[in-house]
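> forwarded from #structure-qc
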């Protein structure tokens, strides 16, 4: 079972969906979706992070980022990853005020552009207890053809990816996915503001390393074998992971057998369980006494 929620982020409405388990203690996982999807990305039937979490004793809140789902929109001229991060930091503060007594802290999970924005949030060192950061599908080196594709989009309007484009950009070979999953995931599809596409291959690539260096909590980073949006191999995965110089722990993995939307692949559950295990690890280690051997 899931529930919907609405949070007041200093006058800005942020919506989302959540598991409804009411656990005592442990981590609260807050998930931020990527571009061209809503929070429902994390709840596609048969590939749901929320279902996997509930089945394994975790609570997850998936938020609609600004300009997505039921969340208020930011005008394109003002829409930046940094501004979205400010709003989401306030939304999570409101969420923590409401439910925080039941948890040890927050593990922030971000996919794709949601991962970039999660890094902005973590780098700001929020007032609510951030236990760890798990990000995927984000990097800082994009292939030339991807940069050219985003730069060629018509100005002044959001971009709607059709199913064929999603299949091309977001998924691996046929053997990595179940038939019909691209169509099934359309329940979570949404237009992506052009400003986000331009920033992710523009300004983001210039600030990613500096943001990472400010993050002082444990970090889990996943990249994917059949990634189409970033230049990915074992060396670039380790290069990106090396930016997190202030983190107490960094895990970086190139996950084979998946494309960009890893949750929706046949190995989606294996990927999600890695993220949940990391969240559990962060929660336990946060309670470790300073003088523990």
């Amino acid at each position: 079972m899931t529930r919907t929620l609405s949070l007041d982020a200093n006058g800005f409405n942020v919506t989302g969906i959540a598991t409804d388990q009411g656990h005592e203690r442990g981590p609260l996982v807050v998930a931020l979706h990527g571009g061209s999807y809503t929070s429902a990305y994390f709840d596609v039937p048969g590939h749901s992070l929320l279902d996997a979490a509930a089945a394994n004793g975790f609570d997850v809140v998936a938020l609609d980022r600004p300009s997505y789902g039921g969340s208020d929109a930011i005008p394109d001229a003002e829409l930046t990853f940094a501004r979205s991060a400010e709003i989401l930091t306030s939304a999570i503060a409101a969420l923590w005020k409401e439910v925080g007594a039941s948890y040890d802290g927050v593990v922030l999970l971000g996919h794709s552009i949601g991962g970039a924005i999660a890094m902005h949030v973590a780098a700001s060192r929020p007032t609510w207890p951030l236990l760890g950061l798990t990000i995927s599908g984000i990097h800082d080196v994009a292939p030339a053809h991807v940069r050219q594709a985003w730069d060629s989009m018509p100005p002044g309007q959001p971009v709607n990816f059709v199913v064929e484009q999603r299949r091309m950009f977001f998924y691996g070979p046929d053997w990595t996915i179940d038939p019909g999953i691209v169509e099934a995931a359309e329940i979570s599809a949404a237009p992506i503001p052009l400003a986000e596409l331009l920033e992710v291959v523009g300004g983001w690539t210039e600030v990613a390393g500096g943001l990472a260096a400010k993050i002082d909590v444990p970090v889990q980073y996943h990249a994917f074998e059949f990634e189409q949006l970033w230049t990915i191999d074992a060396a670039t995965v380790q290069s990106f992971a090396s930016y997190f110089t202030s983190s107490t722990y960094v895990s970086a993995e190139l996950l084979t057998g998946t494309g960009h939307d890893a949750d929706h692949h046949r190995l989606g559950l294996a990927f999600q369980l890695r993220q949940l295990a990391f969240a559990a690890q962060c929660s336990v280690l946060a309670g470790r006494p300073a003088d523990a051997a």
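QC bot note: The chain has a mean pLDDT of 95. Strands lie at 2-9, 12-19, 27-32, 59-63, 105-111, 130-136, 219-226, 250-259.
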